[in-house]
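ARCHIVE CARD
Drawer: 12
Card no.: 0347
Subject: one protein chain, sequence and derived structure
Cross-reference: see card 0346
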Amino acid sequence: MLPVFQEHKEPVIGQIIDIKVTEKGVWVAAGVWQEVSQRSFSFGFNVLESYQKNYLRFLKKINIKEISLVFFPAQEDTQCKKIKMKQD
């Protein structure tokens, strides 16, 4: 399972339950163990395959290492629709 962080920093605050690529983008379901204020996502990943065209880099294949809830995402369109805390 992939970990969930706040602002890409320890400690782990949850884990990814499911992740899918859809027509609208990447859809993620995660369990979070503590209350958070952030409502945007940031992905920590390694680039496995890419190409460059007209000064732009296109990522063809990546390996997602972690997902963080952040205040200021690199991609402004990321958003958290609902946060449901995992009960012990």
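Annotation on reverse: The radius of gyration is 14 Å. The mean pLDDT is 88.
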